[in-house]
Amino acid sequence: MADTITVRIPTALRPQVENQESIAIAGASVKQVLGVLTTRYPELGKRLYKKENELNRFINVYINDEDIRFLENLETPVKGGDELSIVPAIAGG
């Protein structure tokens, strides 16, 4: 069985996860964790993914403060006690 990690949900996405600030999910990779999360909360999945297995370009995902794009992206392994943060990009003008 995979270890449990904490997924931090930003304020803008909390309505899609019953207003939870964080959710404990088991998984061995970022892909597995996000898969469980979006199965539980399909509306969140619509915001996170552009298409299957392709994150929306305005969504950043960090594992323990490391951007997964500079690791193994969705295949980045996770272990018990890790913290995954979902961070929507903010644009301004």
Describe this entry's structure for a reader.
This protein has 93 residues and is α+β, with helices and mostly antiparallel strands. It has a single domain (4-88), classed as Ubiquitin-like (UB roll). It is built from 2 helices and 7 strands; from the N terminus they run ββααβββββ. A 5-stranded mixed beta sheet has the order 2-1-7-5-6, with helices on one face. Strands 3-4 form a two-stranded antiparallel sheet. α1 (30-40) packs across α2 (42-48). The longest helix has 11 residues, at 30-40. The relative contact order is 0.25.
What's the short story on this structure?
This protein has helices at residues 30-40, 42-48; strands at 4-8, 22-26, 49-51, 54-55, 59-63, 66-67, 83-88. With 93 residues, the chain is α+β, with helices and mostly antiparallel strands. It has a single domain, classed as Ubiquitin-like (UB roll).
